[in-house]
Amino acid sequence: MPIRFYFDVENGRETIRDHEGVDATDLAEALTEARSVIREMAEEVCADDPDTAWTLVVRDATGAVVARLPIKPSSISGA
């Protein structure tokens, strides 16, 4: 049975909440999807302020944080 995971983006000052989420069979699959999201968005998120540290926060269906992954422009090179 799939589990719903949510990928929020935060930088310490602001949080962009994921209200839709994705279904995954387990945390490992959710983390694979999270890394794919990071590759897609790293350049855009970091472009305006490259010195700001952004993080992709993975939450499970209960809202508990299960992982934190840094978002960096270098993340696009096969994270």
Characterize the structure shown.
The chain is an alpha+beta fold and 79 residues long. It has one domain (3-76). The protein has one helix and five strands; from the N terminus they run E-E-E-H-E-E. The protein has one helix spanning 27-47, and strands at 3-10, 15-16, 22-24, 54-59, 65-71. Strands 1, 2, 3, 4 and 5 form a five-stranded antiparallel beta sheet that branches. Residues 75-79 have low confidence and may be disordered. Residues 4-71 form the DUF6894 domain. InterPro entries: DUF6894. It holds the Pfam family DUF6894.
Can you summarize this structure?
The chain is an alpha+beta fold and 79 residues long. It contains one helix and five strands.
